[in-house]
Write a structure and sequence with these properties.
This protein has 149 residues and is of the alpha+beta class. The chain contains five helices and four strands; from the N terminus they run E-E-E-E-H-H-H-H-H. A hairpin with a 6-residue loop joins strand 3 and strand 4. The longest helix has 15 residues.
Length: 149
Amino acid sequence: MSFQCSNCGSINTDDATFCTNCGNPFSTGQMPMGSSSGMQVQQKMCVNCHKPINVTFATCPFCGVVQPNAGVSTIPGAPVQSGTKNKTTAGLLGIFLGSFGVHKFYLGQSGMGILYLVFCWTGVPGVIGIIEGIVYLTMSDQAFLQKYH
């Protein structure tokens, strides 16, 4: 029998008192893998290093990369959704509707969206929206995921 660490997902021997990968101490109530507890840890593949990790992990414990869709199981080899916000959509909204703060509402920043609406008559939010739209479009996918998810 072996234990799977609830912190990093690595496999440890049944006599281990802490995880050999991350140092997380095992509780006395932790069940070995394959036991009849009925609880099974769902895993997904890291989008960067492709090692199996727990589906609930927001970052990979092996390479540290932010994982999209934490809590959602993925099948190895299947395309991975990049999350609920799309950087192309945010960029285009910023360029074409930035005057009204639509891109801010899309990204969940309602307060900033309202501020853009209040000052839309000045033209300043439109210029800022174009700049922000270009920034979103040129930003790496990983940076966008870390900042807006």
